Structures are given as C-alpha cells and as structure tokens.
Amino acid sequence: MAEEGERPGVFANCLLAFVQSSSVSSNTISELSQIVRQHGAEVLEPNRKGQIRIPQVTHIISNTIDFDQYMEAENMMIPVVTTSWIKNSIARNKLAQVRPYSPDPRMIFSSVVLTCADIPELDKEAIAGATLAFGGTESKDLMRTTTHICALTMDHPKCVEAAKKFPKCKIVLPHWFDTCFKLGKRIDETPYLLPDPEFLSKGSDEEVKVPQSQNLEGATSAVPGELIEKRPALSGGRQKVIVFAQKKVMLSADLNLNARLRNSITGIIEDSGGEVVNVADACDMFICHYRDGPQYVRAAQSGKDVGNLAWLYYLIVHNEWTSPLRRLLHYPIPREPIEGFKDMRITLSNYGGDARIYLENLITAAGATYTKTMTANNTHLITARMHSDKCDAAKEWNIEVVNHLWIEESYAKCRVQSLSSERYQHFPSRTNLGEVIGQTFHDEKVLRQLYYPGGEEKPEAFARKKRKSTADGQSAGRSVMNESSPAVGRNAKARGTQATAGNFATPAKGRHVRSGKENDTPSVMSTGSRSAKTQALSKLQSIAPDIALYEKEKKRNPKDGPWGGKRAADLIDKERSVMSSSPTPDEKEDDVQRSVSKRGAKRQRLSLPDVEMRVVLTGYQRWLEDLHKEDADRKKLRAMGVQIVQDSQPCDYLAAPNLVRTKKFLRCLARGPEVISSAFIDACLDTGKRHDPADFPLEDKTNEKKFDVKLSKSIARARANRGRLLQAVPIYCTSDIKNGYDAYQTVAEANGAIFKVYRARSGTTIKPTTAEEDGGAPPEPVYLLSTNTAAEKALWPKFEKMAKDGHMEPRIVMPDWLLDVAMKQELVFDPKYLASNKPS
C-alpha cells in the first residue's frame, strides 16, 4: 500500500493470478510476484481446490491459453495476458492495454507493434485498423518496441533509422498484411521483407519449400500412434506424468481397448494422481471415439472435458493440459458423415508430411472419400499452392480448387462452408499454406447445437461479468449477470439421443494414416486383418517403458520383499523405511475380487467393500515394534473401505499426528491430498466403524509457526501446482550430505525438479553457453544442496564455475531451503538459506 502523499503503484487495485506452464516456470512466477507486489498488486492465492479465484481476480498472467480455466476466464471477461504485459506496464509506468498481450493464438498480431511509412493514407488506416482488430498495436512514430514497419521502399526516414538502430524490426510490404487479413492467419514475413522482397522478384510458379507443420504433433489422427515413448526424460528416467493430478477420467467403451491396454492407461492416470471412474457424472474428463451415445451426451452437456484417445495420449506425452477443442482431431469424430460431405471425392496437392496425413484423416472424419490420385470423378482438390499437375487438371475438369482452410472450417462448424469465400480461394504466390495448417479451433456452440442440445452450459459460463475499465485497461469493478441455458438450435439427429447400450460394442472405424508421394497407390486393409486402430494401439504396448514398468510392478510377489509401507520411528524427523513397491495383501485381494467379478464367476470367496479412502500414514506410533498388530489393524481398516498405502502410490488422504517435515509427508503433500489427523485412524480402530474424515482435520498451530507455514495455503498451492512446483528446476546435492541425498531426491522429484548428485569427480554436467545463445535471457538459478563441512565446501568453487560457464546463477543452499519450499509449496529464495551464511 502506498503511504499518504505517495503515488500508488502501477498495479494498485490489481488482483493477479499466475498460471505455470512450460514457458512460465515457478522461478519466473516467484520473481514476477515480488515485482508486482512492489508496484502495488496483490497476488491471489489459489482456492482450496487449487484453482484460480475467478470471481476475485482482475488479470490472469499466462503465456498460453492451455489451462483448464481459460474458457471460464474468457466467459467472465477477465483478461488473460502474457508476462510481457507486466514488463511493459512497468516501463510505461501505467497499465498497458490488455489486447496486444493476449496469449490466444487466434489473435495473430498480438505481438505486433506497427508503424507505417510511405503508405497512402487510406491504406494506412485500413492496415492499422485490421492490425488492431487482430490484437496488435499501432504507433505513429518509430520506437524501440516497434516490431514491424509497413513500407513500399527503404527510402522513408523510419526505414533508414530502423536499419541502423533496430535491426530486429521487420520492414514489410503492405501485401503481407493484406494476405494475413484475407486468410485470418499469420504467415511468414520473409517473402515480403524489404529491401529485396522475394514476393516481387520471383514468379508464383517457382518452387516453394514445403514447410514443417508446427501445430500437428500428436494431432494428425483421431487414432493415436506410438506416442508415450516420446515423453521427455527427467534425471535419467522418464518425466513423471502430473497432468491428471486430481482429475477423474472416464474411458468410454467405444474406444474398444483391450484389457491390457486399458489397465496400462489406468495405471498411468493413477500414478499421475488421477482416478479412473465409470460414471460420466463423476468424471472431469470423458474419453471416447464417437460424438454420440448417452454417456457422451451427458458428459458434454454437463461441461466435462470431452476428448478422444489421441488427446489423452497428447496430454501424457506433453504433460501439460490443453483443450480438446483446440485441435480438430483431438475431439471425438462424428459417426455419420457431416451433412454434405457424403458424396464428395477429395484429393490433395502440395501438402507433405504430417500436413498430408492430417488432411487425409480430416477428410475421412468429415465423411467424404479421400483419393490419392485425381480423376474426373473427383469433386474437390485441396491445395497449398496453385501450381501442380493436379491444379492444371482440376481447371480442365472443372473440379473445385480450395485451400485447407475450407475443410478445416467446414469440419469445425459441422457444415460445408461456401466455396466462394475469398479466404478459401486465396493462394499467396510465395507461400505454401501448409505453414498455417492446424490452427483452426472447434466451435463449442455448434457442437452443442448438433450433438448434445439442451443440458447445462459449462458451469463456469453461468455467471458472466461486465467489466468497466479505464482507457489504459485498469479494472474498476464488475457486475454479475446470470444467464439461463436455452436449448439452442435443432434437435440432434439419432446420433446422441437415440443411442443405446448396443452402440458401445461397436468398434471404432479404422482411419487410414499414410504418407508418401501423391500418386502412390493407396494401401487397402483386408477385412480379416486388425483395424488400423488396433494396430496402432498394439504398438504402444510393446514399446512404452512406462507400461512395461507398470505391468512388472503390478505382478510383484509379496515374497520378494517386505510389505506394509514405512513404519514411523518417531514423531518428527526419523522414519524407518521398508522400501518396496509390492502390493499389500489387501491390494491383492482387491485385484482378485475385481477380476473375479469381471469374469462373472458364480463363486466369490471375497466380499471386501470397495476402497473409498486411500491413506498415507506418517509419524504414526500405534504399530511401533508390533507387526502383528499392524497386520490385524490394516485388515480391519480395509474391511471399512480404508486402505493404507505407501507414499509412492496414489492417495486421497495424508494422515499424521502433527505437522512434520518427513520425506513421506513432503512427498505426498506435493500431490495436494486432504491432510487429516492420524486420530482418524485411531477412532476407526477403536470404534470399529469408519468416521467422517472431515471431523479430523490436522491442526497444529505450534509447528505452523515453527515452519512459518499455513497448512491450508500449502494444500491449495499444491493442488494448483500439480507436482510442477519445481518443474525443470535443476537441483544438485552433494553425495556426502548429512542424512544422505536419497530423501532430498524423493522430495525434489515429487515436485518435478531435475535432481542430480554432485561429486568431486562428476565433471561438468551443465553445457557451457553464453547469454546470446540463451536468447539474451538473464541466467536461471541452479541449486546445490550442501552443508558447510570442509569436504563439501571444497566442491563449491567447481560448482560455481560450472554454473556460470553454463550461463546460470549458482545458489549453494542448506537443505532447509528445499524442505521449506516443499512444505510451503511456493518457490521462494532468501539469502538466509545460503550455506555460506551458516556457521561451520
């Protein structure tokens, strides 16, 4: 707060929330949070569920729209802006407009700062107006922040000055803007750059390089291929999947998964902290192949995230949430052809690689027939340029010629779009339109109208806000308007509303996925062979290391090692661990019971109730030195639907007698479970019945003060972080650190860190680099956990040199830094943690 007579900060009255992603790390969020607080802002803590407090927040800071509350924020008219908005607001000492800083890729000029040079006045107004409409900004003068100059020649003073002082500023012909406006997509500026634009010097019939498709990875088909093995590695192994944390996922029967693959996918989801459910009303994510059937309709109507198996695999590989509506083939396909496509025969030209495969599958998904070769029987040619043998033949045979935007937007809007639209007939002379493929989104309103009319709008869309703002974008207040949910449009065809249970035995249609030259003979699958879908899925089973490991662990025999988890040795810091991932006898009984019930056996030896609570216990003394009592009590609890699990397994609750900084507690806290008092376990065992865990919250004001932490805030942050608090943060640890490095490794990796042991003979492990090679970005911190013994201190100079050579900032810290960060679930740093500040 500004003192009396002092000018308020630039972010005064702003309530900000940050979204962590691959482009905005926890470290960046920590630094920016400090900065905005110094300028008057308040950074809102997440709510109990780990979500952004949408009703209160004024701005959401995110460099991507790929977070699950984006649609809610958009419906509530809350601006989502990139981190550049903060920097530019501070530089200008007033809130910058929000529109130019939108992370929405549909705002194609959101990063463009334009000034015009020798352009006629009317053209200048048209170009500036359209640039603003697509999220850009315009200035009359050339500034340091200017990104583009629109000019006809290099003679104008603005162009001369930019060439001398601002080499990164691009001087482009107005034709570039015109083409982008017509297409509604931003194409590469290179052919239009002055002083020697290729657009003017080369003919449209000269060869143009086929571009790489940037938006099609994992989205070329509704049927996924071999994706999971591409997941990035972390600390010598595969990166922990956290994208399903706190999510309930339903796998529809129409996916036609075999039992082994279903179990493997279930294991990945559960290991990520999620849960697989069998009721559409109970799920957060519904995975199906076709956009029909009562479960699909129910899930879609109630605002669940509905996607197909390709979307699910995409989430696993990228380990980051994205909307299934963002990529056309991540959403379930229609079982019947989209109206108007049934009798179309479509071929392609001038598209290669993933773009060709994607368009082949999109044509088939729409219900048309794709042909590899073109004959007079073809109805349409989709081409990226107007120069090829197929294009010439199409003119002679009066075949319709369009670019790929026509099929994309027809599929997205669930109806054939007019061929006469200029955007579908536009072919820039020096551009292959494959560079802008895959950027079209689904229209959720159209999907609702045709496939699941009625029901609820998305829950977050109930309350919409109108925001009043000043000219510079500062929020001054908002009102709430409730809307009813009209049943829009015509009734769905028999697709969804008349589907029966019989539909779910129906196998998914095989979608061909091919590549190669245009005139190769298409391959034909025999009717006796497996479908393309089954082939693709079977490959996954044989190659995915995660699946193999999961299957191996699931089959482990209890005789191979001790069971029962870790047993407490004291209340605070010491735990004796029996490290085994073997399932407990109770878990094996559950597996037997489930498999027996699935086979429909008449005789069933076991009658245990379903597991309703999975609990990790730490610091618990009731069973200390009494293994027989522990065995008996575990069976009693299991009979109540309560299962005690190891800290490496998914859990719903973390139970402890008080707030402790044990490895178990910190590892589980990263998943954001409910934290309860272990008195709950005592009460269940003493009374012989299961109590309500809500009656046993863990309350420990003494240790909250001791550790400078608020448990409720830590839980909320953990649910927001979803195990990503230290994602991509490199943490080294000396090999001889007190109490061993194993415990610190467990805590660090539970929060997504890259953990390495640092030894005197380990050599350089950070690649030497320079600021220029890192794009001019400031050095990121790298941590070394160390105490200040003579042996460990001898390693410090070598570590510091290694970090600085790699353009990183070395921070040699006491282990308490990691423990405090994990307990608070907030990446903070204070010089008090530096090992050099501690007495020897």
From TrEMBL:
Query: What biological processes does GO assign it?
Result: DNA double-strand break attachment to nuclear envelope; double-strand break repair
Domain BRCT per the UniProt entry, residue ranges: 6-103, 104-194, 336-424, 783-835
Region span, Disordered: 458-537, 550-605
Give one Pfam family. PTCB-BRCT
Q: Where is the composition biased (Basic and acidic residues)?
A: 567-577
InterPro entries recorded: BRCT_dom, BRCT_dom_sf, CellCycle_DNARepair_Reg
Basic residues: bias regions: 596-605
Residue ranges with Polar residues bias: 471-485, 521-537
Gene Ontology cellular-component terms for this entry are:
Cul8-RING ubiquitin ligase complex; nucleus
SUPFAM superfamilies attached to this UniProt entry:
BRCT domain (SSF52113)
Q: Which PANTHER family match?
A: REGULATOR OF TY1 TRANSPOSITION PROTEIN 107 (PTHR47667:SF1)
Q: What is this protein called?
A: BRCT domain-containing protein
Q: Which organism is it from?
A: Immersiella caudata
Lineage summary: Eukaryota, Fungi, Dikarya, Ascomycota, Pezizomycotina
